Amino acid sequence: MKNVDVEAAARLVSFGMRPKQLPSRDVTYADLVRRYAEDSAFKQLTHSVAAGLGLMVLDVSTQAGAVLAATDESVFEIKMDSYARQSKIRERRETEKVLHGLVHLATAALGFPRPDDLANDTYIGRVSVEQVDSVVREACRILDERAARAEENNDPLADAPELEQAWRAYARRPAAAATKDGRLAADTTRGMVSRALRFLAEQGFLVQVNSEQGGTYRTTPRYQVQVRELAADSAFEELLDLGVVSVGEAGGTLRPTISDTL
Q1: Does the reported pTM lie above 0.85?
Q2: Is residue 99 part of a domain?
Q3: At what angle do helices 94-111 and 129-152 cross, to 10 degrees?
Q4: For the chain, what is the domain count?
């Protein structure tokens, strides 16, 4: 192992830590990505360098570049409190944090509504503030109906009481209200969704295509890699287990199935 190889691997990792940097825009970055694909020793060295920094290499490609994820307790891990500061969340109570987690989960599922979309490297999804808000509100309605039926049967929902509280808190908030300068008010649900999508854009996961009704965004290859990981996350599985989110094989969607509404 030569020092120059270690330096090259570290440089590839450093490129991956720049959210909006792409191999197509930098010759050095493109050369390192190509070396990663062709040289197994260099690939392993890159993974080792990343691991030493508390990072995992999720993927390296000419489309997405080096896509990294922080391991637990890594100095690079984005904690919810850090996200709260970056996205200017006024209240950092547990319910508020869960609400933002649900918004991000809904965004991921809407961006790639079918399993085939995640498998297709050329797929580009679109998601809007209005879409995310509408879908989460529909899910709130379903969960509230389930809770009401359970209470009528003297069998209150025992699973995820904090999640149930979060859904109800979301449903109580107004969807939209404009500030004096025409922006979405921060304490509305669409204001919350708008902040979440802007944060994802800053991380290189989304690209804004218009600003109508809070904004519409397109997905990036970098985000597709991240959502592939999210699909296997326990939080995603727990939400699916609630029956609120329905993802089918061919035309999966976050919208509820007919059986959910009965």
Answers
A1: no
A2: yes
A3: 120
A4: 2
Are 48 and 88 found together in one domain?
no
Instruction: Tokens for 88, please give them.
Output: 């200017």
Length of the chain equals: 262
Residue 243 region by backbone torsions, left for phi larger than 0, else alpha for psi between -120 and 50, else beta? left
Q: Tell whether 204 is covered by a domain.
A: yes
Side chain identity at residue 206, one-letter code: L
Q: How far is CA 115 from CA 124, 152, 170, in A?
A: 13, 37, 28
Residues 166, 109 within the same domain: yes
- Walking along the chain (262 residues) 10 residues at a time, the average pLDDT comes out as 89 93 94 97 96 93 92 66 52 62 84 84 92 83 73 59 65 65 64 88 92 89 88 58 47 37 31
Q: Angle of helix 27-38 relative to helix 3-16, nearest 10 degrees?
A: 110
Residue type, 237: E
pLDDT for 94 equals 56
The type of residue at 226 is: Q
Residues 131 and 62 in one domain: no
**pLDDT confidence of residue 36:** 97
Q: What pLDDT, on a 0 to 100 scale, did the predictor assign at position 248?
A: 42
Tokens 């690079």 belong to 76
The predicted structure's pLDDT at residue 261: 33
Does 262 map to a domain? no
Q: Alpha-carbon distance 223 to 112, whole Å?
A: 10
Of 136, 144, 260, the closest CA to residue 189 belongs to 136
Range of the domain at 199: 80-242
